[in-house]
Amino acid sequence: MAYSQTMLVFVVLAPGVVFSVLALLWLVGWTPRERVVSRITGAVFSASILALAVIIWRLAATGAPAVTVTFGNWFTVHDYHFPLVLMADHLSLPFLGMTLVLSGLIGQFSATYLHREPGFLRFFLLLHLFAFGSLLAFAAGSFDLLVGGWEMVGITSVLLIAFFQQRTAPVENGLRVFAVYRACDIGLLVGVFAMHDWAGTASFAGGLPSLTGNRASIVCLLLLLAAAGKAAQVPFSGWLPRAMEGPTPSSAIFYGAISIHAGAYLLLRVQPMLVQSGLASAMVIAIGVATAIHGTMSGRASADAKTSLAYASLTQVGVVFVEIGIGWKAIALVHILGHAMVRTLQFLRAPSMLHDYHKMHSAIGGELSPTGKHLEELLSERVQLWLYRWSLDHGHLDTILDRFVIYPLMRLSRLFAKLDSMGLSLSGREAPVPRHSAAGQGNM
Amino acid sequence: MAGGARILTSVAIGIPWLAGILTAVTRRHSRVIGFAASSVSVSASVLLLWAAPARESLDEALMVLFSCVTLGATLVLPRRDCNSGTIGGILFLLGSTLLAYSTDDLRILLAAWILSTVPFFPKQWFRSRTWRPRLGLLLSSTALALAIALIAAHGHAMSIGSLKGRSPGGLAVFGLLVASVIFRKGICPAHAWVADAADGGPAIPTALLLNGHFGAMLVAKLIVPLFPHTARDLFPLLSYLALATALYVAIRALTENSPRRLLAFLALSQSACILAGLESRTVEGITGALVHWFVVTVSTMGLFGVLRLLEVRFGENLTASRHLGLAEHAPRLAVFFIIFGLALVGLPGTLSFCSQDLLIHGTLASHPQTGLLLPIATAMNAVSVFRLFARLFLGRRRTGFTVMADALPRERWILTVGVLFVVLAGLFPNAIVAQQAAEAEAVEQAIHAPMRPSEVFERKLSSKSWSDSREGTSGMAPRTAGNKSPEKIGRDPRFRQRLRSASAGKRDVLHAGTKSSRSLYEPATVLS
C-alpha cells in the first residue's frame, strides 16, 4: 500500500478507533478523565490533519487525480457485492479537510465549553463517531459505503440533539428529527438498489454508474429525497429549529457546517448524472429556491439566535442547491467551504453574542438606532401580517407534515390496535391494555 | 463420522433435558446447572458445525446460535426469575429446539415442535391473561400434525431427505404447512398472540420461544426442499403476507406504550422480514434472511434481557407513554438497549446493516412494488426503537430514586458479548455472510430447479404451459444463470423424447419418468 493510501486509511479510521476503544472501556467499567479525553481528541485530529496534508501534497506532486484504496469486497453474495473502496479526489478532499479541521476545532472548544458537564464523555464519543461517519461518507468510493457513513451521521446527530436528556423537549425533538432522517433515507437505499439493478454497480471510484434517460432521472430523484432530508430542504425544513436543542458546539458542526452540507455533497457526487436529467435538475433548483426563500423569511421572524443562524444556514444551502442544479459545481464547492467556516464561527460565538452587544451598547452609551426602512414596508399591512405569521410558524411545514403524514399514520396505528383487541372483546375477555395508559397515546 | 455426529447431537439435546429434570428435582443451584448444561450444548453444537460439510451446515449453525443465546439467557436472568421452574423451562425449550433443528424425521420434527410449546401451556409458568398465545401455538401444532399425517397417509417415507422435491401430499399438505408457519410465526392475521405472549408471559423464556423462529425453520427445512415447484408458484402469496405483516406491525408499534408489547411488535416485524427474504427466491434475499435470523435472535434477546433487568429494578409498570429518565440510574443498560435496538433495524457497523442491505436488494429484485414495503417498515421500526429508548431512558429523572442501579458485572459482561457479536460480525461480515450465502444458494437452487418431466407433462395436460406459468410470475424470474430455463428444458432431446412417448399414453410416462428423469432434474440436495 502506497504512503498516501495508508494516510487515507488512517484519516478515515482514526476517529472510529478512538470511539470504539473509549466506548468499550466505558462499557466494561472505566471512565476516563476529561483531560485524557480532550487530549486524545486533540492528538487524533491534529495527526489526521497532518496526514491529509500529506495526501494533498502527494497528489499535487504526482499530478494524480485521486488516491484510491481498495480492500476488495466487504461481502459478496452471488453476483452482488459490497465494494470496500476509499477514495480521495478533488471533490472529497475539501470535505475531508473541512470535517477534520472543524471537528478538531469543536473538540478543543468543547473541552472548555462542556467542562464538568455530566455528558462530557458522551459528547466526545459522539463527536468521534460523527467524524468517523462523515469521513467515511466523504471518502467512500461507492454509494454502498456512503450509506454507512450517512446513517452514522444521522444517528449521532439525533443523539446529540437529545444530549440534554433531562429535558423532555430535546428528546422529543430528537425523535422527530430521527423520523424525518429515516423516512428520507429510504430514497438513498432504493436509489442505491436501482443503481445495482440497472448499472450492475454502485461504485463511483472508476466513474459514476452509466445511467441515462428515465433511469437516471429516477435515481437522481431518489437521491434528491435523501439529500433534501439531510440538508433540511423544503418540505423537510421543519426539523432544523428542533435540532437547535443540542449543545452549541454540536449545532455548529452539524447544522452550520458538515451534516447540513452532506446533502449537497451527495448531489455534487451525482452531478454528472444530474446533468442528464432535466427533470431532476429542475427539481433541485426548485427545491433550492423554495428553501432559500423559506429560510430567509423564517430566519427574520426567529426570536432566538441559534434558530436565526440555522435558517440563515438553510438559506445558503438552498442557494448551493440552486448552483448544483444549474451545474456550477466549482462555485457550489467554494460556497460550501466558505459558508461552513463562517457559520461555525457564528454558532460558536452565539452564546456570548448578547454579552458582546451589551458591552457595545455600554461603550457607545445606548442602543444602536434602527437601520432604516425595510423592503417589507413596501407591502400592504395585511400582506405583511400574513407573511409574518407564515414566517413565525416556519412556513407551516411542520403543520402540513403533521396533518397529512403523522396524524393519519397515528390514526391508522390506533385503528390497528382496536382491530387487534377486537377478538378479545368479542370473547368477553379483557383486552390487553398497557399498564400505565391506554394504547394509542404515543406520538412522534 | 456419522456416529460421532449422532453422539454430539444427542449430547446437545439430551444434556439440557436431563439438567432440566435435575433442576426441577433438586430446586437448588439452578443458574449453575442451567449454565453448565447450556455450555455443553454450545460445545457440542460448535463441534457439529465444525464437522458439517459446506452448504449443509444451516442446522448446525442454528443450533450454535440458539444454544449460545440460551447460555446468555441463563446468565442475564435476574435473580428474581432464576428459579428451578424458569431454568427448567428454558433448558426444556433448548433441548426441544435443538431437536427440531437437527432432525431429519418428520415425526421427530412434529414431536419437537409440540414439545417446544409445552412450557407455555401450564398457567403456573406462563401467566398470559389472554387465550391467543395458547391458541396460536395449538393451531400451528395441529396444522403441522395434519400435514405430516397426510404425508404418512399417502404412504410416503418420513425422512425429509427422501421426500425432497416430491411434493408429498400435494397442495393440501403445502397449505397446512404454510398455515403452520403463519400461526407459529405470527403472520397477519395471526399476529396478535405474539404481543400477548410477550406481555403476559415470562420475558426471557418467551423471547427464547419467539427466537426459535420455527416458522422460518419450517420454510427453509421442509417447505422449500419438499415443495420446490409449488413454492415457486405460491410463495409470492406468503411473501406478500410477510411483507404486509412487517408493515402492519411496524405501524401498530408506533402508538404502543407497553414496552414488552412494543418489543414483541418490533421482533415480529423483523422476523417477517426474514420470511420475506426467504421467499424472495434470490440468493441475496435468502442470504439476507439467514443472516438477519442471527441478528434478530441476538438483538431481541438483548432487548428483552435489558427490559427485564429494568423491570426488576424499577418495577413492572414501565411505560412508553411518558419519559422515565432511567439512563440516570442505569447508563450502561441504556447503551446496551440502544445498540441492540438499532442493531435490529440496520445500524451501520452492525451485522444488521449487511443483512438489511441484502434483504432490501433481494426483495426489491423479486417484488419491485411490494418490496418497497420492507425499507418503509424498517424505517418505522427504527422510529419505534428510538421512541421506546427515549421514553424509558431519557427525560427527567424519576423522583424518589437516587441510587445507581446499573448492570451488574455478570449482566454487563454477557451483554457486552452480545454487543461485540453484532458489532464485530458487522465489521467483518464475510465469515457469516459467506457461510449463509452457500446455504442460500442451495435453497435458491431447490426453488429454481427445473420440474421433472412428469410434472411438466401433468401441467401440459391441465392446459397450463410453462410459458403461461412463467408469465404469471414474470416479475420474479430466477436470477441464477446456472439453472436450466424452461425453454432450454423444452429443447432438451431427452425431454422431447419423453413428451413424444407421452403422446402414446400418460400412464407410461408417469411411470417411466420418475427414475431416469430424476437423475437429470432432481433438485440439488439441500439442508439434510
Helices and strands in order, then pairings?
The complex is a heterodimer of chains A (444) and B (528).
Chain A: H1 3-27, H2 34-62, E1 67-77, E2 80-88, H3 92-113, H4 120-139, H5 143-161, H6 168-199, H7 213-230, H8 239-243, H9 248-257, H10 259-269, H11 271-275, H12 278-301, H13 305-326, H14 329-364, H15 381-392, H16 397-426
Antiparallel strand pairs in A: 1-2
Helix pairs in contact in A: 1-2, 1-4, 2-3, 2-4, 3-4, 3-9, 3-14, 4-5, 5-6, 6-7, 7-10, 7-12, 9-13, 9-14, 10-13, 12-13, 12-15, 13-14
Chain B: H1 2-26, H2 30-51, H3 58-76, H4 84-102, H5 106-117, H6 132-153, H7 160-163, H8 170-185, H9 192-200, H10 203-211, H11 214-226, H12 228-253, H13 259-278, H14 283-314, H15 331-344, H16 351-366, H17 373-393, H18 409-427, H19 430-448, H20 453-461, H21 466-472, H22 486-491, H23 493-504, H24 506-521
Q: What can you see in these coordinates?
A:
The complex is a heterodimer of chains A (444) and B (528). Chain A has 16 helices and two strands. Helix content of chain A is 72%, strand content 5%. In chain A, strands 1-2 form a two-stranded antiparallel ribbon. Chain A is mainly alpha-helical and 444 residues long. In chain A, β1 and β2 form a beta hairpin. Chain A has one domain. By secondary structure, chain B is mainly alpha-helical. Chain B has three domains: 102 residues, Four Helix Bundle (Hemerythrin (Met), subunit A); 318 residues, no CATH class; 65 residues, no CATH class. Chain B is built from 24 helices and no strands. The chains are: A mainly alpha (444), B mainly alpha (528).
Descriptors:
heterodimer; A: 444 residues; mainly alpha; two-stranded antiparallel sheet; 2 strands; 72% helix; globular; B: 528 residues; Four Helix Bundle (Hemerythrin (Met), subunit A); 3 domains; 24 helices; disordered C terminus
